[in-house]
Amino acid sequence: MWNWSGSDLKLRLTLRVAAVSMLCFAAIAGYFLIEADRSVRARIAAVADVAARTLELQQSKIQWLNNPRSDFPDLDGVAASVMAPGLCLAFRSNSGEISQRFCGGTQTDTAAPPLAFAALYRRLFDPGREAVRPVVSRGQAIGEAVVWVDPAVLTAEAWHDAGRLMAVLMLALPLLCALVYAALSRALRPTRLIRDGLARIATGDLAARLPPFDLAELSAIGDVFNHLAERLAAALSDRNALTQKLIVVQDEERRHLARELHDEFGQSLAAIRALAASARLTAVQDCPTLLAECDGIARTATDMMETLRGALFRLRPPDVDELGLAASLEGLIAGWNGRSRGQPRFEIVILGSFERIAASTGANLYRIVQEALTNAAKHAGATRVMLRLEMRETASAGGGGEIVLAIDDDGRPGDPQGDPQVKSGMGLLGMRERVAALGGRLNFEAGQSAGSSLRVSVPVAAGREAAFVERAA
Description:
It comes from Bradyrhizobium quebecense. By secondary structure, the protein is of the alpha+beta class.
């Protein structure tokens, strides 16, 4: 069965033209059959008129000559001049007796029509009907001149005519379809440009534009497409600018919160520990029963300081600016291995020197790694995470090289990092915006059975330019 939902437009239109053409041919064939039937009716009616006039003249001649021995009826002359295959001519008396009859033979070279066509033709046209004309003598009807055509002959002739039309249809229809398909292919050729433009838009190339077309309908589509592409490019640019602004604000808020926690909360915890230690010294001399409470306060303050130290580490990476990207990432991996106690296991491989990269590049790459490790450890349930950082010298990066970051894990396939519904969340979205701000590329792939891989490539020149812009701002 034909799949109309996925069929070619040119083929669909060609098939519709073919169907309409067949209906037109069927209507033409029906028209010719009706006209042929009318022609036959008119011919046998004319023959019946001639036969009746001839018989009336014969009867008048007999009465004028007073010759009762003359042969009547005598249809030889009429039959000789009008006889055709299948045509029958007869005289029928008032009593219903046929006195004389002539019938032409049938053509032997005519193929017999199909039974279905014969039944339909006889039902529609009744080819055996007679043409009857009265024969009058002295004002009284003495009989009838009867003319008819053999139904089998008329049916065979109709089938012969319909067959010729069908032969013409079989020859003309494929040619017509080929011409229509070629014309539609030429007329719809601009739709390929529209499809290619939509494909470019789908891949993120918002600079795609359509040229003007000759057809007004396609030209209107092209104008709307170009307008939507411009609007989409502007909206995406605004969204990227807003997202990057949010990232900057978020980092600033993190730094501010880290300073506040370190300066206020950290000092308060240190003071509590000092007071607990002082209270313990006093309790040793005056009230030994309070030693346990003083030790509990000191332990609680110590635990809170450890928790605060971990929160400060996540809020602000202090080592990136001071130690550089490579050393900061090594410290980050060591911290994850220390806190997770080997489950999962984090590994890192660093190739190349990263001492001269811009500060913004290092900070953004650090945040990307931090987010990816958090997703792999806390959401994907990974048991092994591999981090690879490499500096590549490439001519395509403007001679400044390219930083390639690869993170692979063996987490479950339904993890939030690989789930399409969570894929557009703030985690991966933030990574994409950070990479876009550095002029780089990001690719994330989740395995079918397990594991996921994150690939980030950032040109070093773009990072330096971003750092210059950040300092200028």
